[in-house]
Amino acid sequence: MTETAVVLSGGLSHERDVSLRSGRRVAMALRSRGVEVIESDVDSNLIGLLDSLPQAVVFPVLHGEAGEDGALREVLSLLGVPFVGSVGAACRVAFDKSIATTVVAESGVATPTQIALPHEIFRELGAQALMAALADQIGFPMMVKPSRSGSALGASKVTRPEELPSAMVGAYAYGSVAVIEQFVSGVEVTVTVADRGDGPKALPAVEIRPDSGVYDYAARYTAGATRFLCPAELDPAVAEACASVALRVHDVLGLRDLSRTDLIVTPDGVPTFLEVNVAPGMTETSAVPLAVESAGWSLGKMCADLIRVAARRGGRVPAEPVA
Fold it and tell me: Which of 66, 4, 54 is nearest to 30 (CA)?
């Protein structure tokens, strides 16, 4: 039996172009393993397409709110369509930085001090009224970013009080809630967790060194703008600690199949949680394919295994055992 995978990418979020690139990469990887692939956007034709493919498994590669807030996965569950990745409820928690950070902190993982401010509150009280309180609670430098967005869109580092109003406006351009958190200095790494049917495994950490010094949208998706080291140049004990944190995050947030946890390793070697991605990028400049290669896997084999795990979870028999 040849599996059929419907790779969903695109959507209407600010990250549409990145999603399309990720989708093409996943589709190519699956085809290299003999999986029949149908690439689809999320539009009015999707449900009809899925109805016509009763044996298909969906591989969502949608980034941003439309793909990572859990809504689409709730629909797939409602339709009884098996899919790769976390269920809707877990995605809702993971995608909202203000909620995910609280849950992760309660599990004992180090996190930055963080405050969430809805746009209505900020608008009514104003930046000047909040400046002193934010400076006292968070301190400078601080990070300002949308609570529900990805790819560092709307995120900015604030080093002086006068920069705060424009940073808040930038964050609110991508959502109704902004998070203001302590800026954590250190080595930026990201750790992929994948479960190919035999339990979650942490892949080698990827160290991120943007040429500009800031890992923003351009640094993430412009070829050559960021240097990635995999495995990261970390002390073995620190690398193991990063892997443990990523597995802990995957567990406490109830994630499944695939996730990527972004961390800062402080100068004293403590991995500090920044955020988690339930639909991580798969482009030619993304960290997950690098980690997969460093682990000695192939991207095609991993994606095909995830399809088979999802098919088996849906009551379907995999074509071959997961390696």
Answer: 4
